[in-house]
Amino acid sequence: MTVPKLLNVRDFQAAAAQILDPVHADYFAGGARDEITLAENETAFDRISLLPRVLRGRPAPDLTVDLVGSPTSMPIFLSPTAFHRLAHPEGEAATARAAAAAGTVMIAAMASTVAVEEVAAQGTALWFQLYLQPDLAFTESVIQRAAAAGCRALVLTVDSAVFGSHERDNRHDFHQLPDGLHCENMRDAGEVRPIQMSPEFSWKHLRWLQSVTDLPVILKGILHPDDAILAVEHGAAAVIVSNHGGRQLDTTPASIRALPAVVRAVGGRIPVLLDGGIRRGTDVVKALALGATAVGVGRPVVWGLAVDGGKGVSAVLEILRAELEHTLLLCGYGSVRELVAGLLLLPPGEY
Ligand SMILES: Cc1cc2nc3c(=O)[nH]c(=O)nc-3n(C[C@H](O)[C@H](O)[C@H](O)COP(=O)(O)O)c2cc1C
């Protein structure tokens, strides 16, 4: 058998699809309902053109950013995705090793199949993604675990009043983890609690969260500019413009399309991050030129993990880093921090 050369993120996607159990491949790939947002997240980037500058006499590009207090080697972080042990036996521990090697932030998912303490032990800058649970005392105990493990920020996912409807999973009847895999952060006195969603959470619960932790709280899943303003007013340390990779409410705009209005509403008061559909270095440049401080990758990390564990995740991250640097050089920019919207030709009527 000839081993195909894996040159880009799409190659990893195709290779992962060959390796993963088809049911799990659909779990990772799928989106909500008709998967319109899922597709839009990627195609919206393709409709934006780059208008490069020439003869600018710039040095080799500087990719470093300060990511809400965590210095990173590039403006690309690992968005939280659940159940990494479905992709590789070492699961989130292997992912964390790759994040550490890349010098960037990993956001550990509450629904991790490796405990946060073991993920943190791999030495990466770690943030903890949280779904508020109706049992606030239990929620507080999870936060304390994450803080004690060394997580530097909490990422509160706010786009999930209920679970999204994934018809691929429903067709496969995929509703629980295989034997031996558990959400290790949901253990409570030996029992593993199910993760619950609730529509009853409100801004007052953000206040509660801030009262029980000193960690910065970042809100993930902001699309509406009015919510971005409320996030600033309620002391969020940053917002992540995200539609959950098209897995919650279908037919929301691509996250890149929601970005400019959020950036305007926030007005530089806190960093604005983005995830959804990042597959190329050019996508990263487009998001940064529209005002994002950094971008997250979800599925590409899982594809790398499925293909070759931590080494596969490293390969995906290094491909994106090299593409980002190459794009900056071709665009005439010497730093990711100097990107401006003038670099872009936006599709008429869309932005
Ligand atoms: C398989 C899978 C599981 C995910 N699990 C979570 C989760 O537990 N918590 C969360 O906030 N977001 C979760 N997300 C959303 C990601 O954090 C991120 O928003 C999304 O994957 C970004 O889009 P991309 O996959 O196109 O990069 C998940 C996404 C995928 C694909």
From TrEMBL:
The keyword Flavoprotein applies. Gene3D superfamilies: Aldolase class I. InterPro entries: Aldolase_TIM, Alpha-hydoxy_acid_DH_FMN, FMN-dep_DH, FMN_HAD, FMN_hydac_DH_AS. Keywords: Flavoprotein, FMN, Oxidoreductase. It holds the Pfam family FMN_dh. Residues 1-349 form the FMN hydroxy acid dehydrogenase domain. Its cofactor is FMN. The keyword ATP-binding does not apply. Belongs to the FMN-dependent alpha-hydroxy acid dehydrogenase family. This is Alpha-hydroxy acid oxidase.
